[in-house]
Amino acid sequence: MRHSHRRYAITSIGFLFLSSIFLTEILLRYYYQNAHRKMAIRYQNRELCTMRATDTRLIYTYVPNTCEANAKGYNDAEYDYEKDPAIYRIVIIGDSVAAGPSSTENFGKILEKRLNTNLSSHRGKAYEVIVLARSGYSTSQELVILEDEAFQYNPDLVMWSYVLNDPAHPVYHNANGELGRFWYTPQYYLLHFLQKTIFLVYERVKGYKCEKEFHKFLHCVYHKQIEENIKKIRVISATRHIPIIFLIHPIFEKGKTYSEYSLIPVHHILNTMATSVGIMVWDLYDVLRYYNPEDVKVASNDQWYDPWHLNIKGHMVVAEYLYEKLTQGLWGQKLPKQPR
After folding, report:
1. Other Cβ atoms within 10 Å of 233 Cβ, number
2. Fewest beta carbons within 10 Å, which of 110, 137, 179, 327?
3. Pairing relation of β-strands 60-62 and 244-249?
4. Mean pLDDT of 254-258
5. Pick from 291, 293, 303: nearest CA to 251
6. pLDDT-derived band of residue 330, with 50, 70 and 90 as boundaries?
């Protein structure tokens, strides 16, 4: 009789436990779907330009042939994977900073025009700069583009456009204007909630002594992860025998000029990480520091300050810097050789 009561108690506890899990899953599912509906109202045009990616590592992508996107879901012209031997091709990997204000006014396309205007007849080559950039992509997503798509275009050179919010998690952080949260659908909502909670607790504990400014915090807490990702980029470059140049974008600090720029130590850390494994680094701070940030950044408003994006003049400045580096820099009028 005593054993029967014990079995009954154990069964009851198990039932209550499973019931609580089931109820929590239902409540979290409702909470997520309600939050998604509110985001859909705030961003009524979002679903016209973006969609859930079939590759779950990417989370979302651009809708092909919509909102300036080409057939492959990038804001650029159409390019065949195969290329003529007379074409020198550069692929740029990045996010909305590399994508620019439009598909023709980003530093990649301005660089393409500059190269073809000044060098095409001199070298007997045509130049193509293909911009594989999507708004809000983090390093984890950009690595997928590098590995799975960039080399299909048979590039002679790859430029990795690195912005200081790139280490952000595409779902748990919000460096993509909620695009990650909007398009990510957990298989199990309770499991997702627990994973996110553990992630944020770990981040808080790990970042206890880190500076709280977002970009400094990311590069402090995720120092090891950033280092490992840079090593992956180098391994991919060496395996493919294609040089990859690491471009570092400075941010625009509110109310400061570049003479007061506080993130130089972060740039130095990134430079050391990349150069130590053999990746060439071009730090765009080296050219943008000569300009008033207000002259080269997009205009902000009272509701939101944009610390990342260049205006058209800024893209022109960066394009000219890249042109000079490619043609008159360390290679003595030569474009980079393949890594060995």
Report:
1. 23
2. 327
3. unpaired
4. 90
5. 293
6. very low
> Could you tell me the two tokens for 23?
């109820």
- Mind listing the domains of the chain with CATH numbers? 84-176+184-328 (3.40.50.1110)
10 Å CB burial of residue 211 (0-12, 13-18, 19+) is: middle
Which segments of 119-263 does DSSP mark as H helices, in order?
Answer: 120-123, 139-148, 179-183, 189-206, 214-221, 223-240
**How many angstroms separate the Cα of 96 from the Cα of each of 29, 106, 176, 187, 284?**
31, 10, 9, 28, 16
* 280: amino acid identity, one letter: M
Owner of token pair 């977002």: 214
Distance of CA 329 to the CA centre of its chain: 27
- pLDDT tens digits for 43-74? 666 567 888 899 999 999 999 988 888 999 99
Structure tokens at 107: 């530093």
